[in-house]
What we know:
The protein is mainly beta.
Amino acid sequence: MKILIKILLLIPLIILSTNMKVYAQFNKAGRTTYQFLKIGIGARASGMGEAVIANTQDINSVFWNPAAITQLENIQAAFNYTKWIADLNVIAGAVGYKLPGIGTIALNYIGLDYGQIQEALVTSSSGSTDTRTGNTFSGKDLAIGLAIAREFTDKLSIGINAKYLREDLYILSNSLWSFDVGTYYNTGWKGIRIAMTAQNFSKQARWLQTKEESQQSFELPLLFKIGTSIDLMGGEDLLFGGDPMKSRLSINIDAVHSNDYAERLNFGGEYVLLNTIALRAGYRVNYDEGNLALGIGLNTELSGFRLQFDYSYVKYDFLESPHRFTVMFAF
């Protein structure tokens, strides 16, 4: 048991260390567009440092690993709100339903509104250093997706999420389609799960038509992740045993490879008391901001359906620290 746990934890570390040798002197930041796709959705996930692709079995897993929506039972819906930096607000929602004998489907939505932005010129004809015109403009980001996942065995699930994306800023706009794919494998032994995802497969985005396409096209943030999760408490066969209705403890680790930054590593954990209160913490390695994350959750039953509230705080040193809130319903 101990040897297997060590092997599972070492897999992301090996991938990370191998890739960091290649990219140690090459920071790829600033080469992609549609940056809102990298904003983590859901208070539970962000409260665990976004180390969740192998340990997110609710409807919000559609934003992290579409294969994991197979763990839903009947109907589940979630509403997510993120108070983002610079007074920006991110609204996201999802609803999913398990179709017996077919699979699980989920509709999902992400919206980011830039609000009103002061218009300013590059230079002022009067020579003033204040180049604002007094006018304002706005912008918004949108992602609407449909996911489907199926259990191919009692342990392996595979899922895909097709997304329509659109960005508007001032008089410019762009829209395209992208895809997320994921796998989720529950070993069924000692609470060990393994997952892999690839997000934002798409063609390049282009706004202007004044130069060669290669000079005015930008990639989307392509993310590859591999993760493991281990339940340490909450079952007789687990490392620390225990009753799942009294207490559960899990730890997670995700390795992240992207096309616009160096390699990253996410750690997270969750402790659930009496199947009601959840305490979460996480730490993200090799990020400019938002390394430490904390979260809390409350789960209750009301008139035949389950109601869950989640909150998370991610510590930023130089920017405003984001706050996330999630309300989830299960029928």
